[in-house]
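Exercise 7.
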Amino acid sequence: MRFVLGFDGGGTKTECILMDEAREVRARGRSGPSNPMRVGFGGALAAVCEAGRDAMHNASLSLKDISLICAGLAGAAQPESELKMKGLLSEEFPGIPVHVCTDLDLTLEATGDGPAIVLIAGTGSGAVGRDRAGHIARVGAHGYLLGDEGSAYDIGKRAVIAALRASDRGRPDSPLSARILQELRVQDWEALHLRVYSQPDEVFPRVFPVVATAADDGDASAREFLQNAAEDLGGLVSDLMERLGLKSQEFLLVKTGGMIGRSAYFDQQIDERLQSAAPDAVFGALAVSPAEAAARLALRLLPALVKEGKQGGGD
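Solution. The predicted structure, written as tokens, is:
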């Protein structure tokens, strides 16, 4: 029996699925973020290894039992990043073939067959799609320095900037600003300013749930932040539809990511934008989790590797 490891890594967490060749999930593992553009290549490598070790421990297996590794990581879209992560993982898992792709690739893989678009709304943002002929295209997912419009990072950053500007003008903290300080456990905006420049990834994504809760409670400024984010996310889907020639066509449209389901108001705003942009789309869900999709992709790659005589362990 041969086994594979499938990884789904993003800006918040890394999930691992250990699967056998009969497509049975044998164990799961979990660790911290593994986006190399956010935590560095060393941090990403450490998170992937930790999640893999966790899954192997839970299945009472070791490296010699693993035949292939598939890691779908946010931040691995550029060829240089993909090659570097593949090299690092190959060193950590010697003798085991490694396939590296992006987390966007995994979400599309998890939709099954046919035309589809997946909108990712999490720490980062982006969309990936496939047309009827099987051609694949992506928009967004350029990272927080060049994009990630409408993401949790983006919303948190916008909310903090607005609060800082109000503080600079000598205005008292708004209810939303006070909630942000309380959530981040800082006394004032000067202290938060210092933390932002030392740990931006620790600060901005944590602000999104505060904004989401405030919006559901009726806070006007929080709702404005979420309206703008929904507009940005809807724009990603609209742009991708045009690239893939899916306008006025029926296709599967899936929303996924840590921002979905966190706020009734935000979910409503996103649905309204998407229904307007893609009136012929069929809203649905991923058939399997991205981590499970990574493991299934690893299994599909096994025959070619066996033919080449490159398969790893197993009995």
